[in-house]
Amino acid sequence: MMNHFNHLKIKAGHAACAALLLGCLTLNAAPSSTDQNWPQWRGPLATGVAPVGNPPTTWSETNNIKWKVKIPGSGRATPVIWGNQVFIQTAIPAGKKVEVAAEKKPDAPPADANAASGDRPRRRPGGGGGPGGMRSEKPDQAYQFVLMCLDRQTGKTLWQKVAREEVPHEGHHPDGSFSSYSPITDGKQVFAYFGSHGLHCYDMQGNLKWEKDFGKMQIKMSFGEGSSAALHGNTIVVNWDHEGSSFIVALDTEKGKELWRQPREEATSWATPLIVEYQGKAQVITDASKKIRSYDLASGKLLWECTGLTANVIPSPVADDKMVYAMSGFKGNALMAIKLGRTGDLTGTDAIAWHHDKSTPYVPSPLLYGDKLYFFGGNNGMISCFDTKTGKALIDAERLEDLKGVYASPAGAGGRVYLVGRNGATVVIKNSDKLEVLATNKLDEQFDASPAIVGKELFLRGHDYLYCIAEK
Questions:
Q1: How far is CA 3 from the centre of its chain?
Q2: pTM of the full predicted structure?
Q3: Backbone φ and ψ of 319, nearest 5°
Q4: Predicted confidence band at 129 (pLDDT cuts at 50, 70, 90)?
C-alpha cells in the first residue's frame, strides 16, 4: 500500500519555477527533470500531484490502453517512473516449500499499509474497513524479492534483479502482499526497499551498488509491512516502527553508510515518512499512533512532536509551504493541520491551525492539490475536500457509488482528480469546490496500489497487470 520527496528543491534549470511553485517548502533530491517524472509512490511533490501531467479522462480495456503487461508474483505498491524507465517491485514464489508449524492468530481488524504506502503502503499495505478477523498465515515457501525495470514505451522488461530470496518470517493480511513497498529513484540510482528483506541500491542499469539489512520486523497481527523509504539529496530515510524496538535511521545514498539512528516509542505503523525543507532546513516528518514527530534530517535531532492521531496509522502526511497535514482513521477519525516552523511539544497549542474528526481514511493517503486537501472516508468511496487555509469542508464525505472499496490514494493532474477503487473502477472528478464527476472508467482488474502519472500517461498497477493508459 509502501512508499518521500515532499516539496523537494528542484535544482538546475527549474530553480526559478520551483521557487514560484513551492515557496519556502522545496522538493528534495530533485534534478531538473523531477517534475517530469514520478520518482516515488506519491509523485515528485509527495502530494499525489503530477505538476505537468495531463493523462486521459476516459479509458477502457479497448480504449486508450497504450500497453498492459502481466507482472510476475505479487505486489501492492505503486511503480515509479524516470525517463523511459518504469520500476516496480514484486515478490515471486520461488517454488521451494518448507514445513511450518500451525499458527493461529487472534481476531482483529486488518491493518495492511502502503497500497496506499508505499504505496500502504500502503497499500499499501492495506487493510481496515475490510472484514475483521482475517488471519495471517505463516509462509510455507521461499520468495524472490524482485526489482523490475520496464520500458515506458512498450512495457517490455529491460532488466529484472532478485534482491533477496528467502522464506518470509511472517505472513501478511489477505489483501496485502510481501511487496507493498514502492521503490524510489533520483534518476541516478534506484532504491528497492523490502523492509525485513533489506534495502538495495542499484544504478539505472540494474547493477547492485550496495545493500543494507535492518533485521526482522515484528508486525502487529502479522498483517504485513508497508512503509516505503524517503529520499532527500544524498540521504535516504527508513522508519522502522514495529512490535519490537522501533527506530528511524538515515543513510548515505552513495555507500549506504549509516548517518544517524534514533529510537522511537512506537508500535507498528505503516505511514511513509515525509521529508520537507522549511526555511532552508530539511526535516523528516513521521505519522504514528502515539505521536507525529519531526526530526532534523542532518542530525536526527527531534524538532517537534504532537499527539492526536488514532491507532494503526497508515496514511502518509502531506505538506505545503506553511503546514503539514496528518490524518488517520482506525477506531476514530483525526485530521490535523500543523504549522511548520514550531519546536517542542505542539499538543494543544496554536500550532494546530485546524482539525477535523470525521470521515478520515484508514488506508489511503490524502491528495494535496493546490489549496485543496482530498481524502477518502475509511476505505470507502466517500470523498471529502477541504480548504487548507481555513479548514472549511468544500466536499463533505460525499459517496461515489461506482467505487466499491478503496485502498489506493487519490492522484491529481490537469485540473482533475483520479480516484481508483478496488473493483477496477476509476472515477475522475474536477479539481473544484464542489463534486463534479467527469467520467467513470472500468478495467478488468482489482486495484490496491496508488496511481502514478507522468506527462500524458497514467499508470495503474493491478493484482496481476500493470496498465499504461494514454490517448491514442
A1: 4
A2: 0.88
A3: -150, 150
A4: very low
The span from the CA of 249 to the CA of 311, in Å, is 23
DSSP conformation class of 129: T
State the distance between the two ends of the chain, measured CA to CA, in whole angstroms.
30
**Beta bridge pairs of residue 463:** none
How far is residue 451's CA from residue 55's CA, in Å, rounded to a whole number? 11
Q: Which helix (H) or strand (E) holds 158?
A: strand 157-166
* pLDDT band at residue 23 under the 50/70/90 scheme: very low
Find, among 456, 413, 465, 420, the residue nearest to 44 by Cα: 413
Q: Give exposure, 106-134, as e/b (b: 16+ Cβ within 10 Å).
A: eeebbbbbbbbbbbbbbbbbbbbbbeeeb
Give the pairing type, strands 199-203 and 372-377: unpaired
Measure the CA–CA gap between 297 and 125, rounded to whole angstroms. 26
The grid coordinates of residue 115 equal 497500497
3-class secondary-structure state, position 354? strand
Strand partners, 211: 200
Strands 246-252 and 235-240: antiparallel
Count of Cβ atoms closer than 10 Å to residue 302 Cβ: 15
Give the tens place of pLDDT for each residue, 278-319.
Answer: 999 999 999 999 999 999 999 999 999 999 999 999 999 999
467 in helix, strand or coil?
strand
Partners of 306 in beta bridges: 292
**Complete domains list, the chain, with CATH:** 12-92+110-469 (2.130.10.10)
Compute the residue count for the chain. 472
Gap between the Cα atoms of 379 and 265, Å rounded: 27
Grid cell listed for 223: 498483517
- Burial of 98: CB neighbours in 10 Å, binned 0-12, 13-18, 19+: exposed
Integer Cα distance of 137 and 275 in angstroms: 35
Q: What is the dihedral of CA 382, 309, 80, 246, to 10 degrees?
A: -150
Q: DSSP of 230-298, one letter per residue?
A: EEETTEEEEEE-SSS-EEEEEEETTT--EEEEEEE------PPPEEEEETTEEEEEE--SS-EEEEETT
Q: How many angstroms separate the CA atoms of 159 and 150, rounded?
A: 7
What is the Cα–Cα distance from 389 to 379, expressed in whole angstroms? 26
